[in-house]
């Protein structure tokens, strides 16, 4: 299965995880990202800043590999250097720096373009993506959330089928009154 084929999934958490997986692959095998270049370029204008950042990071890894005839979407990456989110600006800078000087890894930001960097940030990012915006609404569909409930509603595709299935099984196994 080609992960890049699914980078446009409607669920932002899925897009983030897929972009993250592409970055991890690129850390070890950057030339494997050649086929994903176009789709990664399309993710640079994703509505989710973490997806934009991961796409830029993956493109930076591709640039670092210095593969002939692989052009990066420079205009879009330059525009991301002015993004409101530092997560995005740092990764756009990484992509542009590796594109301009692939032989100089000392000039690269700490943790970007490494598996360790991904491992150190993923949990916090997932928490931020899945947390409500503070207004008591699902961050994905806008439905009201119960006060002490999940940060995502159960009627939206935010939750996995297995979670929904488990909830249904729990409901069936409860004694009726």
Task: Give a structural overview.
The chain is mainly alpha-helical. The protein folds into two domains: 3-130, Leucine-rich Repeat Variant; 134-177, no CATH class. 51% of the residues lie in helices and 0% in strands. The protein contains seven helices and no strands. The chain has helices at residues 12-28, 37-43, 49-64, 74-80, 86-100, 115-130, 161-173. α1 packs antiparallel against α6, α2 runs antiparallel to α3 (49-64) and α3 (49-64) packs parallel to α5. The longest helix is centred in the N-terminal third of the chain and has 17 residues, at 12-28. The chain starts with 11 loop residues before the first helix and ends with a helix.
């Amino acid at each position: 299965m080609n992960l890049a084929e699914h980078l446009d999934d409607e669920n932002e958490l899925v897009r983030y995880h897929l972009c993250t997986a592409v970055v991890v692959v690129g850390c070890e095998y950057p030339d494997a990202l050649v086929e994903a270049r176009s789709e990664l370029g399309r993710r640079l204008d994703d509505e989710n800043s973490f997806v934009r950042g991961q796409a830029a990071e993956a493109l930076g890894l591709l640039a670092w590999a210095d593969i002939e005839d692989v052009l990066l979407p420079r205009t879009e990456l330059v525009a991301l250097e002015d993004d409101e989110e530092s997560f995005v600006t740092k990764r756009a800078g990484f992509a542009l720096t590796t594109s301009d000087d692939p032989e100089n890894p000392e000039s690269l930001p700490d943790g970007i373009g490494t598996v360790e960097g991904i491992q150190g940030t993923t949990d916090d990012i997932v928490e931020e993506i899945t947390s409500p915006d503070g207004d008591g609404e699902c961050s994905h569909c806008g439905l009201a959330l119960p006060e002490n409930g999940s940060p995502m509603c159960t009627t939206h595709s935010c939750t996995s089928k297995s979670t929904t299935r488990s909830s249904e099984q729990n409901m069936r196994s409860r004694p009726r009154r």
